[in-house]
## 1
Amino acid sequence: MTDRTAFDPLVFGRRLRHHRNERGLTLAQLGERVDRRASYLSMVENGKREPKLSLVDALAAALDVPTADLLEPEAPDRRSELEIAVERIQQEPLYRSLGLPDLKVTAGTPDEILEHVVGLYGELTRRRAATPAVEEARRANADLRVEMRERDNHFATIEEIATDALAAVGY
């Protein structure tokens, strides 16, 4: 879980791209408005660079949106949410261990592909957590709970040890 109060460059970048696209601006056009190169703004949009607060204010003014709107902690739409999830998934050790090449998400990548990657990775992590050893421990724990209920949580051996320990300390 991410800290909802911390600045998230990836979310900020997707919010910036969302507002820029809504206004029909290219990176170069936005760059002219805030005196930054398109390549730098591209890195900001992709979460590779963290802008200074003065640039955040300038970007908000250039896009005619409140600064707070650019700083919201949630992705601006489902597509952005999926792109962020795929980006983060690909950094996970479990994903890396699969030896798969990175999926370069572009505007042409269908949402369904992103949904599949996110869904499959979620299922993979869920199944990985359910290893045979984990399943065996769950079964043993369930069996113990049944036995405890049947005995009304009374185990004579434990009672004897506790009685002896209490007597030893004079209680």
## 2
Amino acid sequence: MTRWHSCNILQIAPDAKRLWHFDAKGGGFVLNREYSGESLPAHTTAKSWTALWQPKLNVAWLPVEHIFLRVIELPKSNFDETLAMAELQLEKLSPLPVAQIVWTIHVLPSRDTAKTEGAPDENLQTVVIVIAERRAVEEFLGKLEGQSFLADRLEVPFLDQLAAIPATEEGAWIYPVLLSGQNAALIAWQFNGALRSLSVVILPPAGDRAADLKSQLAQLVWAGELDGWLTAQPKWHLVAQPAQAEEWGNLLTQSLNEPVEVSPPLPETELAAHTAQRAAVAGEKANLLPLEFSTRYRQQFLDRLWFHGLAAAAVLYAVCVAVYFCAVAWVGHQTSDVESQVIAISNNYTNALQLKARYDVLKEREDLKYAALDSWKLVAEQLPDGITLQRFSFADGKKVTLTGTSSSDQISAITDFSDAMRKAKLNGQPMFNQKVANDFNFRQGANNMATWNFSLQLLHSEDSP
């Protein structure tokens, strides 16, 4: 069973429309707001995305002039079987051809009454068959659609008025109504703890109205006696508003020559609350709304959701595209500013690069010049006596090559000189790279003379440990 979030009850009166909006709370319905007037509040009756997780029930009261009510007794069973049993008797009970009507049933609750003669069998249940002309129902639904009210159910408020009859009170309960602008009354005959029949009496617009009413009531009493359920003189109860109670009370007193007990009907707001409660628990089959209408309304609701969803997606897409193009335009503007700045500083940047290159060249020349002098100084300090230096070469700004002559027996002195040069320090820092071999060469010559040479790799700042 659907757990309803809210319920709208619509009544279309000749002078105006009334709408009651109920909220589902605590297993029942609590009145939230009441509207009256020619137009209906669309935000209250229309269904949107929220109806998917907060179901809304729209119920319309079918005017009483479109309704025929019949009372029958059937064996107790579940609703589907009871509906099938009622369908078998429909042709006999319906005042119109079955193909031209819509109908449903309302099972009256069992009432705990003392077992007396004439009381209903415990295995039987009282069922009210509600019949309406299909053409009238379709015209009524067309009016509702014109007000953008798509009904989920069509209900008869008189059924809730019947439920208010006290179980211990018996007799004829008279409810004045207007049938197509004519004064009439619905009569519920309750005897031996059960509803036995529902009848209609109509007052003529002129003439001896009391006598005509007496004749109609006498025929109804006689029919009840023939059916066997009216076994005693009925007590008469008039359920009407004060304005109607005065008129009908006088007529009934003149017609019956018996006392008539007058009581007010259920207020319409309370009646709407009872209808909301009953409609919320009723099944889909207990509905006067034709199946094709409910199917079409459901499809329209789904189509509307799809349309709104696509429209929302299109709007979102348009917003995203607009944001994208705005972002592109902003980034393009920033790029143009940066490019303008680049163009403005490009000459200065080029000049700065040229100056830096010139500075690097001059700095390298200065470093090489001092590196050569420092290398020569170290050679002068470390050169042993008796060894002649013939050539000092400084190549590529990083390689120092020494070539000289000595006697053949000074090879150890030359080796020590090579090692001393490779480990030499200037201002406490190594001058040459000790990890690179010094390519030492020694060649014996004539007259006890020898030629030697070796190379050293300058230790630049980037190679420092």
## 3
Amino acid sequence: MRPGRYAVRTGSKIRRRALLGGALGASLALPWLEVMGDLKRASAQAPVEPKRFVTFFVPGGYYDGFFWPEGESETDFKLPYILEPLAPHRDKLLLLDGIEVKTAADGFGHPHARGMSALLTGLPLPAGPFDFFIGGPAGFPNGASLDHVIGAQIGATNKFKTLEFGVLWPTYENGALPTNIISYSAPGQPAPPMSDPYEAYLRIFTDLGGSPEQLAAAELRKAKKHLVLEATSREFGAIRPLVGVNDQQRLDEHLAQLKDLESRLDLSGGTLSATCHKPDPAPTPADRINYGTGGAVGELGNGGLDQGVSARMPAIGKQMMDMLVLSLACDITRVATLAWTDAASRAYFPWLGLNQNHHYYQHFGSAQDHATIFNWYMQQLAYFVGQLAAIPEGDHTLLDSTVILFGSEISEPTHHGRTRVPRMLLGGGKTFNLGRRLKFNDASHNDLLVSIQNSFGITANQFGDPKYTTGPLSGLV
């Protein structure tokens, strides 16, 4: 090593010129080290790992005694029937027992609509033009939803700041209503989900990869980034033997982040690769859904979708989940919502041997039949989690950098409960302490939203209605 190329010791310090000059002057920022003395930490920030946020919504709540594990243990519990499909991913989930949607006590609209609004906005519904047989006429909430707030924070450079997916949406009335929207781009501005697989495919993936010239230019840029990262890693490796133990640890952490960043070059920017590709098979015009003019998907028979249309739900759901996963893998978006039908829940489940729609089983069917429907939804969540876990991203997976919020608009359906609502966090292993069941005493759902936004670098200690916000939930991290 040429004298002075990497470092020259002066007592316990390393000269600033030696650290910032030479080959390092053309590479990436070095993390702050004790040996730097007075060098500012601000000039030494490590590359930030991109994170993703997905909301997985299932309508209709659950019957008491069918969702939460028994016992008091935080880690030693058995998943109940409804949650059994998630057993392979038990160490990636965080059950949040005892969350109350306090804002649902205020405002206007049917309890289903209030729960839909509060899921991601933490706000009550104001008075408005949409009438319900109980709760009074309501409008849309006066605030943006969490997905759009996070999307503005981490998705500014992506093709889409957010993407909204729907499966058999809506099941009761066409158009955006307080009972079928969970995502809002701004106060009073609903963001309806894409519910036609073919239209979603055209919107998201048509230009994936670009022209041959664009692909060649993208590959050249990627190759140059790889060279810079490789050179930087060599420089940091050369400095490591010259510093103390604490600084060596900082360098090791920084080198790991650089390695992770280098591996993600093959995933980002919408460039085709082994993990970023168009859906295969891709949705075709034959997959389109025929929205009728009478107000619902298919024919409104017996208070909901006919069973022929409903029977397509498993296939449509898989298409939507696969496109959502690829949207994240290709870095087309980093924030998305997936809504399985709407709060009206008028879809049928003929493949489960059930002959009434979901809403019927919420109020008049057996608790076991309702649990069978919810168990099927958890099978879909397990599939989605498994797909994310199968995509490598450096020394972790796409699931590890994706925070998934699972929720429903109500808890116990017969009385439209708002206490002990079903809430789970999955993935995001570097963000939350997973593999646990936490029990709260009617903690505010708004505080859960605060915790999630904090995990994405948004430091505000309130979200939604400040009346029901006290700060982040304790025990999550």
